[in-house]
Write a structure and sequence with these properties.
The protein has about 375 residues and is an alpha+beta fold. Helix content is about 25%, strand content about 30%.
């Protein structure tokens, strides 16, 4: 009896092994049939592996469509740019990540083919009102479509993977997330137009068209607080940090909209002048047109504005070293390359700081008294 049980166990083990091998073989064959290639765009991936710049130079246009935006990014001999944003240049590294990312879009496994389930993956057609994808299309110099992909949700496995499918194809895929698709044109640009840390700023003048002026200053490079200078005896800052809020306004300058500078008439503008200890002077014009604020920027380097640190002065822990004047001159060239042709709309809090008047920043001394 025991011997027959042993034979039965051996027989069942052999059967389970055979079934496992058959299922594995079938699954591999099915995957080979469905997946076909490691990359969703194998012709592009081969070229990219050899020379990503060659692929980059073959693409002339990127088209992005979603349920709220429809725009293109184009290439000329010098750079990539956004035609709908006054031809403002797009950083090459963002362009390259998208093009090479699509070319090397690597599949992990196939997912549903059922169109009724596409929305669960964020892969409804780009025109759909709900659960729609962003459609990204690469177009070459001959106006031919090289690749097109619908980009859906991140997977539940984490932000390293996401769902995609090709247009006019119900097959969905889980792929590695190797690029991002900003859905708004502004988001294709850098997070900030430029940045001037408040630690560099020496003084700020805000000059209104009616000659009203605000003058804010730090007495020296180590001073922690910006102080409003042109106050009478009965007027105090509204709080100790209000000057610092103006002084730090250039720490980060994200954009909301862009126009050609020639299309904006700055004939009744507020002038804001930031001067740094290292010799940079930045002039800002703030003009309100039909309820929308626009600003222009112009940078110069001026050695006469530079206030060198005393060689035998006290050492302040955490105080950064002052840039050399040569570095400031290089900075000015780069800044004006971004400024020269364009005007910008910023977030309202930036414009409000640039438009400050004395009464916005102060209070009367008798309001500060206590009974």
């Amino acid at each position: 009896m025991r011997q027959s049980n042993a034979y039965l166990i051996i027989f069942m083990s052999i059967m389970i092994l055979a079934i496992t091998i058959m299922v594995s073989f079938y699954r591999d064959a099915e995957n080979r049939r469905v997946i076909g290639e490691r990359f969703l765009f194998p012709n592009l991936s081969i070229a990219t592996d050899k020379n990503s710049l060659k692929l980059l130079n073959n693409i002339a246009e990127i088209k992005v469509v979603n349920n709220s935006e429809n725009f293109i990014i184009k290439r000329n001999q010098d750079n990539w740019f956004l035609p709908d944003l006054a031809n403002f240049p797009v950083p090459l590294d963002k362009i390259k990540r998208v093009i090479v990312g699509i070319a090397q879009l690597e599949s992990i496994e196939p997912k549903t083919k059922n169109p009724n389930l596409h929305g669960l993956l964020g892969l409804n057609n780009e025109s759909s009102k709900v659960d729609s994808a962003s459609k990204v299309t690469l177009i070459n110099d001959s106006n031919e479509e090289i690749a097109s992909i619908l980009v859906g949700n991140d997977s539940k496995l984490g932000i390293e993977t996401r769902y995609v499918r090709k247009p006019n194809n119900d097959q969905t895929w889980l792929v590695w997330r190797n690029f991002d698709v900003p859905s708004d044109q502004i988001d294709w640009l850098d997070d900030t137009l430029f940045s001037i840390h408040r630690g560099r700023v020496a003084d700020i003048k805000i000059i209104h068209p009616d000659k009203h002026e605000v003058f804010i200053q730090r007495s020296n490079y180590a001073e922690q607080y910006f102080k409003i200078q042109n106050l009478d005896d009965d007027t105090l800052p509204i709080n100790p940090y209000v000057g610092n809020q103006i002084g730090s306004a250039l720490d980060n300058v994200p954009l909301v909209n862009i126009s050609l500078k020639s299309d904006i008439i700055f004939n009744d503008a507020i002038t804001i002048i930031y001067t740094t200890f290292d010799g940079l002077k930045l002039t800002i014009k703030n003009q309100n047109i039909n309820g929308i604020n626009w600003v222009s920027f112009e940078a110069i380097s001026d050695i006469s504005l530079r206030r060198e640190l005393p060689k035998d002065g006290p050492i302040n822990v955490g105080l950064p070293e002052m840039d050399s004047f040569a570095k400031v001159q290089e900075e000015v060239i780069k800044l004006n390359a971004k400024f020269s042709h364009w005007a910008f709309t910023l977030k309202n809090d930036k414009h409000n700081k640039f438009k400050s008047r004395i009464e916005d920043l102060t209070k009367k001394r008798d309001l500060d008294k206590t009974e």
